[in-house]
Amino acid sequence: MQTVRRMDHRRLGRLVLGLASTALAMGYLVMAYNMPHGDLASPGPGMFPLGVGGLWVFASVVVVLEAILSQQDAGDLELPRGFERRQVLVFMGTLVGFIAALPFLGFLIAASVYAAVCLKLLGAYSWLRAGSYGVAMGIGTAFLFGDILALPLPVPGFLAGH
Amino acid sequence: MNPIEGLMHGLSLALSPELLLAALIGALAGTLIGVLPGLGPVAGAALILPLTFAYDPAVGLIMIAGVYLGAQYGGSTTSVLLNIPGDASAVVATFDGHKMTKAGRGGAALTIMALGSFIAGCIGVVILLLTIPVVSGVALEFGAPEFLAITAGGLLLLARISGGSLGSGLMPMVIGMVLATVGAEQTQSYDRFTFGSLDLGLGIALAPVAVGIYGISELVYMLEDKDKAKAPIRVRLKELLPTRRELRRASAPWLRGSVLGFLFGILPGPSATLSTFASYKLEKSISRRPEEFGKGAVEGIAGPEAANNSAAIGSIVPVLMLGLPFSATLALMISAMTVQGIEPGPLLMTQQPDLFWSVVAAVLVANFMLLVLNLPLVGMWVRVLRTPIHFLVPGIMLLAVIGAYSINNNFIDVRIMLVMGVVGYVLRKLNFSLASLLVGLVLGPLVEKYFVQSMLISGGDVSDVVLASPIAIGIWLLVAAVLVLGPVVGLVKRRRSSTRGPVESPVALEDADVR
User: Fold this and answer.
1) Helix or strand run (H / E) with residue A38
2) Chain B from 289 to 308: CB within 8 A of any A CB
3) Which of B137, B227, B366, B414 has the most CB atoms lying inside 10 A of its own CB?
């Protein structure tokens, strides 16, 4: 416990990640064990994941031990604060919203709204200007990739059956 | 077909309008990616990757090779003009390149860099031609046990020497292999780790993972950077000409850097980055004016830039000959081949000679394009550097979403990209190697394939697989030696440094690997 208390933020982070990874690796290993794994002469689909799972447990334990015993990865985490934190949260929030809206609104509408909101919240534009630029970006990318390069783009959910 | 005939044949193919256009687009897109903040070469190549699936394999591979070379050049441009390296291999270019810019010689530095990259590219291709008969002769002796040794052993070696601690390379590599086991299994089509989702049955594609861990995490890093509003110094066209004295001082470092870089390129690990530091150290140690290094020495930019480019070409050798990528961008190249139904490896040259030689020749063509196009376009690259971040972020994300969705016309890839973005950010913050994750994802299925084949051939006898041939024994011995000797050498070094006091290190390797 004394060791953990003295840890810097990065080593503490690596310790937490290592422990979480160990738990996930155990779950993966159990799932792999329940697959048909055959024998060495005729390996089944579960054989390779069994080996990978074992290696995952080993790697996770190595990370935990390194976090406790070694100074090699010591350091501060330097998480964003103030304005920078707001920018990061805006970026992640708008991105999650964009990806969630994509199946319902389709690429053209979702991309235009996403670009407009990003420009408004990350830049310093009025809604009118951000909206105009956003629509231009949405239409421009949809035209370039959908029409010229003929790549498949998500269509709005309400049009998908038509 | 001997190498010279092969190159001539490749040039005749690469100079066709379609492949010429692919090289041009790749080189320009690569430079743009290298110059643009927020997009490293890996994320950039990953964005291009899905767009290439609609075209011929040669077009796709040439575009990715062009992006790879262009991004190296673009990354160094920001080093010289802004003192901000576009990627880890461009860090050394800041030492003297930016000092030259401050002294009003930025244009000359860019030209020396571009000429050096071109010369290194040509020398790299010549050495590549010389190595092809040797490597392909050995590679033809490879069967399943030898491939198992080189893929599994290569993964273990990469995890050990990719920089940082053992866990920093090993854990992301295993996570990559774990992701590779998701989906229908190759031989029996048994669904693994899909949790009943039909979408996951297709497996996890490389491009969304690469765009997520590199692209999204890089954008977050850019947004949280307090010094992001740095204005580049303007360079006029007439300032691009170096003086005769500068050219004379650059010529020998170009040649030395080219050979050194190629040798580094064929080794596993962050070879392009290591080669630039090795070249810088070499030039400084043999220079008659070592005191000028770090203050704008021409040799300090000429040698490392040549090494950087030559290492990029050297690292294509294991990809084309063995199907073994030692870096994240090259892992994307392997992915482009497998998606197109091409088996990378020693038989590539005999089974797909047109593809093989056109890629080799296109490297040369892309290098020439970078030289001819990029210097006159330097004004445009400076303007690109001034793109406001609030335009970059939605622009890059729109491209990323299109790229991820178009792989399988499926939203699951877009969601995987988002999740991997968070994973990449956390791993970067905690000093883990991102390249190991991608290489694990690419090589994982190959390791499984060769493991199953080897076991079926040997009837389940592991010793028969390990001792299958002198090549297999040699590879396993080499892997064992590096795995065992690595920690011992590290321990001895730590003991020595603790008795001598702290030693200054020019760069953290883990940083080099992340970008």
Assistant:
1) strand A38-39
2) none
3) B366
Q: Is B267 helix (H, G, I), strand (E, B) or coil?
A: coil
A148–B contact, CB cutoff 8 A: no
Q: Chain-wide mean pLDDT for chain B?
A: 82
Lowest mean pLDDT among A87-101, B167-181, B380-394: B380-394
Q: Does B42 touch chain A (CB under 8 A)?
A: no
- Which residue out of B63, B178, B423, B451 would a mutagenesis test of the A interface target, given it has the greatest number of A Cβ atoms within 10 Å? B178
**Between A and B, how many residue pairs show a Cβ–Cβ distance under 8 A?**
181
ipTM over 0.90: yes
Please state, rounded to an integer, the average pLDDT across all residues of chain A: 89
pLDDT digits (tens, 9 = 90+) for B279-299: 998 898 888 888 888 888 999
- What CA–CA distance (Å, rounded) separates B443 from B436? 10
* Chain CA centroid to CA B143, Å: 27
Q: Residue B452: which of A43, A56, A119 has the nearest Cβ?
A: A43
DSSP B16-77: SHHHHHHHHHHHHHHHHHHHSTT--HHHHHHHHHHHHTTS-HHHHHHHHHHHHHHHHHHHHH
Q: At what angle do helices B91-102 and B57-82 cross, to 10 degrees?
A: 50
pLDDT mean over A13-42: 94
Contacts of A154 (CB under 8 A, 6+ apart): A102, A103, A106, A107, A110, B405, B411
Amino acid at B386: R
Is B242:B251 a contact under the CB 8 Å cutoff?
no
pTM: 0.80
Provide the shortest C-alpha distance from residue A86 to chain B (in Å): 9
Test B223 with A13 for CB contact under 8 angstroms.
no
Residue-wise over A77-94: b if at least 16 C-beta within 10 A, else e? eeebeeebeebbebbbeb
Alpha-carbon gap, residue B280 to B506, rounded angstroms: 11
**Shortest distance, CA A75 to any CA of chain B (angstroms):** 9
For B287-387, where are the alpha helices, taking DSSP H only? Answer: 298-314, 316-322, 328-339, 348-351, 353-374, 378-385
Taking CA atoms, B368 is separated from A75, B66, B121, B237, B365, in Å, by 43, 11, 9, 19, 5
Show which of residues 127-146 on chain A sit within 8 Å of chain B, judged by CB atoms: 133-134, 137-138, 141, 145
Whether residues B193 and A28 touch (CB distance < 8 A) is answered with yes
